[in-house]
Specification:
The protein is α/β, with parallel strands linked by helices. Helices cover 43% and strands 15% of the residues. It has one domain: 3-Layer(aba) Sandwich (Undecaprenyl pyrophosphate synthetase). Helix 2 crosses helix 3, helix 4 packs parallel to helix 5 and helix 6 crosses helix 7.
Length: 233
Amino acid sequence: MCFDSNLKKQLPNHVAFIMDGNRRWAKKKKLKIIDGHKKGSEIVKKIVKKSLEFNIKYLTFFSFSTENWSRSKDEILNLQTLLSFYLDSEEEHFIRKKIKFSFIGEIDKFNHKIKSKLKSLQVNTRSFNKLHFTLALSYGSRSEIVNSIKKINKNINLLTELDITRSLMTKDIPDPDFVIRTSGEMRLSNFLLWQVAYSELYFTKTLWPEFNTQKYVLALKNYINRKRRFGGD
């Protein structure tokens, strides 16, 4: 399905993804867990391509939560290896397509090589604005909110919502209009809790490695058909 010019104007400006189901997909296919994550990274590339076609300006992907550090050492190592490969393989594409890359989260827990690549890609694409691509890595929203409040040098009685918004990791990007979560789970899992206060939520039973562009378009169509309300009827 394609959107005509009128419908394109109704598409979300910022779509955020909770990419769930890589492990279950791999187990269902009797594959290694890392194969599920690899397939999932391919879906990210397809979503980026389709979003460029639709002129969607902001994408945020929940790639690695703070809770994910409790997984096995082998899986964490494989995930870091895959992340490193993804950053290397996508740099040329990001530069060619004028995609601005950024990240949010407590990246100090990652190894030096990955931290260096994240910061390098961010610097090398900082002047671009065709699409703003954000990876949430070692990210937890409650921790982000607590840390943002600690940074504000202001009397607590004078604290405003705007003060907190401006001190969050996402201060340079708009709040998501649309949040998509795959795999059938119907919760936010500590993802952008402050930022999604008025976001439209979309839950699908589809596992992330099977969330193809057709299903992305279906989700966007669902968004267009909604009448957004801020604060009630």
